[in-house]
Specification:
alpha+beta; elongated; single chain; four-stranded antiparallel β-sheet; about 10% strand
Amino acid sequence: MKKTILLIIILLGTVIALPQSKKELKANITALTAKIELLNSDIIKLTNQNLILADDIEELKSKMAVLERQMPNTLNQSIPNNQPNISNNLHNNSPPSQVGRCKAITASGSQCNRNADAGSEYCWQHKKKYDNPENVKSGNQAPVNNNSNYNGHEIQTGPRGGKYYINSNGKKTYIRK
């Protein structure tokens, strides 16, 4: 009895699991092959577009090289003699009177990307902070020396008025008032 019940369950399982006929399977196969052909034609179109874009990139690179070769000549011709040559100032250590990159360090730890104002090493935003010693926050300015001693150590005054000396470990030791 157990064998017959098991045989009936197996037969029902196979009949339920395979409901599609051969016609339905053939229809699915033809639909899928049509989709494959469409995708292949799309691949061919995209490959052709990719080749065209690669040619455009090469053409633009060659035009850019020509313009880069012409650029130094036009810069030298267009700048009057009484103004500094900006292209030369970017590659050497220029004095603060010439235009260059701002030397301030941002909160993220990288150098500021703005150009420095004329007559300063800093941009419009950082000039207020670094060029005026009264506005410098703690840690941004070198300590001011007082030329006085404390137990054989030179006393220094920080930007906020605290007095300290550098101990033998190289650390700041503040002097109580």
